[in-house]
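Hi W., the acetyl coenzyme *A complex you wanted:
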Amino acid sequence: MSNETAKMSLGGKDYEFPVLKATTGPDVIDIRKLYAQTNNFTLDPGFTSTASCESNLTFIDGGEGVLLHGGYPIGQLAEHSSFMETSYLLLNGTLPSKNELKEFKTTITNHTMLHEQLAKFFSGFRRDAHPMAIMCGVVGALSAFYHDSTDINDPEHRRISSHRLIAKMPTIAAMAYKYSIGQPFVYPDNTLSYPGNFLRMTFGVPAEEYEVDPVIERAMDRIFILHADHEQNASTSTVRLAGSSGANPFACIAAGIACLWGPAHGGANEAALNMLREIGTVDRIPEYIARAKDKNDPFRLMGFGHRVYKNYDPRATVMQKTADEVLSKLGVTDPIFDVARELEQIALNDPYFVEKKLYPNVDFYSGIILSAIGFPTEMFTVLFALARTVGWVAQWNEMISDPGQKIGRPRQLYTGPAQRDYIPIDKR
Ligand code: ACO
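Structure:
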């Protein structure tokens, strides 16, 4: 708290509102008493200037292209940490000691299996269902299976359901994939790492041994780290809003998955790869750049632009390097990688993109990597949801633990008709 205040004049009266200090980044004007004092609301569709909560988990400086978890830069975490360690950091606010990490990994590993009855739930879906539709349904259904951890006011219940969600997401994601291709589900192998186990459940079959490729395992882990949390984005805000009513964590995460599905958010990596495939060859890039700039054409360069980053998305830098590593390890020479690189160069030098500060985001290269590993495009957003689950549960926990937490209830600027009398149908 600082002594600084923001002064406002309205209807001939002066008001003062406290300014709350951020550790780093913009301070905020606390307008919680604005309505009570002035009888006015504020209007901010899309929350472009509104902080919806106080949080100490993740910080983004969009202008500088900085992303920190618990103060640690994402590039350092992607290089030196693991997804399990980053998850611990997000859930606890500090990096773990060796023992703490070991214990955390054991706990998560102990929760990887699903209730056997849940496996039957999958057969209710069409085989060609989008795996995100399956994820929404199955994750929501977890609340019908784990009653022993849905008391949100009990910190121990919150801890167990957080661990369950982080542990079971890879199992559910792999099952959604196996179901779509008609192969049997592969049970978790708890001797493997978090990403290694996921790769085996996804690409292994019961008839053969599956050997985890360490380069792919590391790439997968890095992709999970890059997607772990991103402060108050649309899906995280959805989870917080759903959770603010006291809904159980499984239902809240299902709500987050639904929000993430959209092409402006998590669905963008699928859309970016589809776009690169549609462009196909380098010579067709100018045509698509022209379309992206044409106001009468709804086409946008997918994987470009970000609400917060007005600079290179720091995750995109790591993603590009990982794409290089994976493609060379797998010996894949995918022409769309050339299209992506050339498109990036052209856009970065085009005045339209420069002026609007449109840079590649995390999704621009992730689709290329995931496709090279063997994931079909429909699975891309599922992988995002799997990794973001830790951010969602960390943010949800932070909100529920906050004594000042209130149900999320935005206001509106009403522009409809004022009160009028009902007109019987024969008089209209
Ligand atoms: N291609 C072409 N023009 C674009 C693009 C793009 N990808 N992104 C934004 N613009 C233009 C808009 O047309 C607008 O132009 P105008 O000011 O002349 O009207 C201007 O840039 C600002 O765009 P907004 O949509 O107002 O910016 P906003 O912050 O609301 O949107 C968003 C951000 C949704 C990410 C947008 O850049 C976009 O649609 N990008 C493509 C989809 C994408 O890659 N999403 C992934 C986001 S990252 C994530 O979720 C993990």
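Residues 197 and 226 are 19 Å apart (CA to CA).

W.
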